[in-house]
């Protein structure tokens, strides 16, 4: 049975709630004296922790420097057998070798079927959180629209270290714009049924590779 609430009914319900809490004491002040970090105060240790937790979530993690990033990404695309790679408009050109797969530009006109035919996507990120092994995308120029990281089956995400690496979620929040489309990624897309059989690639890429670009 479906119950429909009219505008008048909704207002009566809200009025009763307001009356019920009218004499309630004010909400207590939110205490924020908790620890904001559990990792050592050492960028190298934080990067190692990020690497460990990304791998624990079944992401495939690589490390390189600016001189080697294009060759590394080229090898990853070749190993995947990628013939096409989706490229956000602001992705640094130095990250992709000129003799790699054909580029597909991130355009509003791309349909889900178009994105599904793309072999791989390469993006940057907004931040990476070491303690949770999480990548955060916010639709910036090097990341493109949210959908380009949800439909293709293979996602290579480049994280600049140490500038884009934070130890904890409390450290990440002040650096993120809540008005932007934030996507928090911990490992490749996965789900499990009632018997706990894990299935990957249901609502995102089946394979997530992370390149830690040590600047």
From TrEMBL:
Q: Where is the LUD domain?
A: 115-213
State the protein's name. Answer: LUD domain-containing protein
Query: What top-level branch of life does the organism fall under?
Result: Bacteria
Pfam families per UniProt: LUD_dom
Record organism:
Streptomyces purpureus
InterPro entries linked to this entry: FTHF_cligase-like_sf, LUD_dom, NagB/RpiA_transferase-like
């Amino acid at each position: 049975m479906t119950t429909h609430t009219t505008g008048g009914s909704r207002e009566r319900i809200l009025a009763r709630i307001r009356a019920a809490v009218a004499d309630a004491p004010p909400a207590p002040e939110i205490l924020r004296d908790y620890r904001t970090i559990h990792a050592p105060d050492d960028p190298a240790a934080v990067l190692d922790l990020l690497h460990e937790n990304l791998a624990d979530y079944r992401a495939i993690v690589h490390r390189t420097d600016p001189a080697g990033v294009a060759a590394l990404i080229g090898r990853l695309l070749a190993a995947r057998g990628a013939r096409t790679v989706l490229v956000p408009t602001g992705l640094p050109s130095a990250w992709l070798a000129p003799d790699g797969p054909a580029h597909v530009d991130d355009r509003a006109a791309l349909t889900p079927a178009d994105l599904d035919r793309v072999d791989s996507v390469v993006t940057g990120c907004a931040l990476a959180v070491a303690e949770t092994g999480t990548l955060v995308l916010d639709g910036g120029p090097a990341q493109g629209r949210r959908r380009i990281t949800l439909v293709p089956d293979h996602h290579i995400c480049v994280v600049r270290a140490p500038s884009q690496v934070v130890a904890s979620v409390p450290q990440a929040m002040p650096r993120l714009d809540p008005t932007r489309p934030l996507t928090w990624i911990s490992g490749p897309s996965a789900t499990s049924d009632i018997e706990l059989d894990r299935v990957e690639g249901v609502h995102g890429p089946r394979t997530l590779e992370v390149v830690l670009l040590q600047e």
